[in-house]
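[Solved] Which block belongs to which protein?

Original post:
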Amino acid sequence: MYPSFLPALVCCLAVVIATATASMGTISPSGAVFIGEDGIDISGTGVTAGSTIVWYGMGGTIGSAPSATVFVTDPSAFYVSPGLFQGKTGSWFTEQGITPVFYVQEPQISLRIFDETADFEITPSTVWVPRGDAIGFQVDTTVSILAARPGSPGSPVTIRIRGPDGIEYSAVDGFPLENILIDSPNYRTGPVWFTGDYGNGNYTVWVESTGNNMNDNYPSQGKTISAPVTFLLQRTNPLIAATTAAATVTTTFPATTSSTVPQTALPTPAPTTLMPTTPGTVRSTATPASLPGFGHGAAILALAAGLIAVRIRK
């Protein structure tokens, strides 16, 4: 059973939210409006239902032919439509009175995440965040000027955290993440997320401008939705764990099996009997060499002897 005061509390919260929304959407003459805002009240600027507002372009001359016009159906619930106002930033005027109505701006938003314990910024290149460290956020945005509107409590933004199981958190350690009212272009939370009780895994974090439904009407990264940052949350450095695992790899070598080769007996050669040899006579076939010159001399002597013998016979 619900406590008896709960319905009254819900009604009070509804009144506060409705008042804040109404105040946040009230535009003063020449006040800034952002592309994507809806339900804003521009009736205080002098614009009436059924009238037309005009834009003279960047550097255009007031009173000349307008570069763009928009028909106003209900000035108390005006929509700064991306289809009509994107690319047409700057001052808009009434058609007849040439009176400034509002100043159209492109919203911008980004998110910075800090490990407040180890004192470093968590970026897309961060390898890991030690589980147990405290994390804080910084929202950098141009929509903080919504806090300057009459009666506005601040400009609402929502920080979104998606865990490794796909669950999105609406709060961390008692710090609400939805519709955080900021009044500074560089809003910083300080340490609000104490990660010791959160599971290991990858977490993705981003921020959205939720004022007057800008994030739904104009879901553009860097404008109403920041670029997401994903990081690994766990207690041990994954690089150290990977190095340790690589250093302790055990290599198993296959066992060596010994095999015995049977010895083959070689045949024993038969003994060799040596026969006695008889010395033989060695004949020489060499022709004795003649001394040089003696062959011719013997021939001459023989010829001379023959001639003498013939002469004696006569």
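(Second protein starts here: sequence line, then its structure tokens.)
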Amino acid sequence: MRVAAYIILFFAAALFGGYYLGEYQHGLDETAQENLRGAITAFSFLTVYMLWFSFLYERKSFYCAIPAGIAWALMGDTLAIPFWMVTVSLILSLLTQFRSGLVWKSLLWAVAAYCYSDIYSFSPYLLFYGIAVAIVLIGWKVISIYDNLEEEPVSRKNDEKIQSSFSAPTEETVTSSYRPPADDMPALQPEPTYVQGPEPHIQSYYRPPRDPDIETPKVTPVVRKQASFNDLKSDDYAGILNLLDKKSAALPPALQTELDGLVRNGRLILQSMKDDPEDVKPGTAFLNRYLSAVIRVVEQSERQNLPENAPQSSPVLERCFTALQALHSAFVQQLAQLQENDQLKFDVEMSTLDSLLRTDGFK
């Protein structure tokens, strides 16, 4: 970025010097013209560069040098305006803010002054030199005043900080460390201390007599209500099958085997209805028709399996067993029928697919 700026400054200085080059070449031979061209080019570049540097880093000196440029424009010509502005700015910087970086700038100014001597003569401009000196003195004074104004708020802030941090000394109470000698103080006898022992714990076994007029409340055991088929909806097939599965444990082994098989096939029927929407209608009709019969048989079996009904329960349980066996067989056949429908449907789909493949020539 800096290299690009230097290149731009170089071309700007070349254009600036080349614009005024023709005014100084009249009546000169070729060698003199070549020397003059080099002097003007170097002079323009150095002065433009130093003026740009002064604008960036020495802004106060640059502002004070503007009157010098205006005065030279009125009394001299335009080509030397940057040189005299740089001269005044450099002198002010050396007087007000001297630093080591101004040394190399002074060397560049000396080179520019040498080029200036090849172009101009110093003697005809004595009036301007006096004006330049006056501008330097005035600028020096202005910069000094400006610097003082900048430092004053800072010093005032520092004074305020110092004052705010200052606290007046406070009177402190000084405690004397003097103690009278032991002989002057009467001996203090320690008071006897009484230690109270633990209080004895007295346990009473007294119980008030029982009032015969007050009856002891009877505790009624809470009996949980057993699950019943009446608590379930008629279309809650999964709930009915779960309750049948629970009641199976209270039945005789033969009935239990048939009921377990029936429940297992009933759950498979529900799964088939869930997997295939076409099985919903026949499966629902079957369950609505036969689950109620299963419930009646199971309830009758529970009643007959009680101990008090043992003598006359044998024929009834046999009939219940026969009914459960038939119902179990019906559930097995219904499940097979639903699965057969699924198989037929699959066979039809495969046949259709085979015909489609043959039609398209893939088989």
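Accepted answer:
You had them paired correctly. Confirming on the second one: The radius of gyration is 61 Å.
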